[in-house]
Amino acid sequence: MIPKLISQSRTTEVNTTADSMLLAYQKQSWEIDTYMLTIFTDLQTESNELKTAINCSKTESNLDKKDIVRDEKVKALHYLILGSIHHPDPEVKAAALHLNAVFAKYGLKMIHESYTIESSLIESLLEDFSAPELQAAIALVSGCAELIAGLQTDQSDFKTAHFAWEEEKAKNGLTQCSTDIKKEVISIINNKIVLHLKAMQQANNELYGELSQTVAQIINDTNQAVKRRRKKEETAPEAAI
Fold first, then answer.
1. Residues 6+ apart with CB under 8 A from 159
2. What is the pTM of this model?
3. For residue range 160-178, what is the model confidence (pLDDT) as tens digits?
């Protein structure tokens, strides 16, 4: 019996499963079965797109990390200025109030905006902080100049990562995320390939038997890996509170 692929399989697991099935399929000639040709051609197309999406996901993951780094720097700058407002030295307090008035135009909410909008806001904030009349205030608030310089570096790093992400998507003509493509691959496997092989194995086991057994083993191996992982996650001890 050929099982269906578990829908909770990871994207990389689905990709590996599809590749293995395609290799098994290519060992025989299926010219007499045009439907087999069609569904495995569809699987090949979606599998190729899934590989591309996975690679883009890696680029996007790097972008997310860069965004988190700059968000932390924005928060650090915000809290440094707020804390300095309560500094016992009147000059430091006055400087912090001046800087806070500038930061307040953008607010900490900027880190919850889209990548593009946040970049625009951060660059505008950095431009405001570069004004000559603010340099004395920045110098009075200990650590402020370093955080501003760090934010400038983090923003530049993010822009580089963002460009790489957009370039990767454009280069590959990618319009769907890896999760959506994974669902399509699983649908082809479960609703077309598995159902077709089940029916044809009964009709002509001599022709379809070997491929059916191989596909069943491939899917079963993936399913077992998924089940082991899920069991491990369910039985893992809870983190100490």
1. 119
2. 0.60
3. 988 888 887 777 666 667 7
